[in-house]
Amino acid sequence: TLLEATDITETEARLTWTSPQSVTQSLLDVARDAAFTDFVLQNELVVGGLTRLVTGLQQETQYWARVRTEN
């Protein structure tokens, strides 16, 4: 699964990913650290799509994202 951030502003970013056609839902995590202990979103359910606009981000802050797809 390829995950990409686009349409990045000071407070939001659009996350888009690829997945096999058989996938029906995705679980998205966004964190302020690479160990994923300081979550902004945790297990955010995305059904029927491969994109999510993440809002409420802070300027000058680095974020990490990961997605898990499920059938």
Task: Please tell me about this protein's structure.
By secondary structure, the chain is mostly beta strands. Helices cover 0% and strands 54% of the residues. The strands form 2 sheets. Strands 1-2-5 form a 3-stranded antiparallel beta sheet, with no helix packed on it. It has a 3-stranded antiparallel beta sheet with strand order 4-3-6, with no helix packed on it. The protein is globular, with a radius of gyration of 12 Å. The protein starts with a strand and ends with a strand. The relative contact order is 0.36. The model has no long low-confidence stretch (mean pLDDT 92).
Main traits of this protein?
mainly beta; 3-stranded antiparallel β-sheet; 0% helix; 54% strand; globular
Please provide a brief summary of the model:
By secondary structure, the protein is mainly beta. The chain is built from no helices and 6 strands.
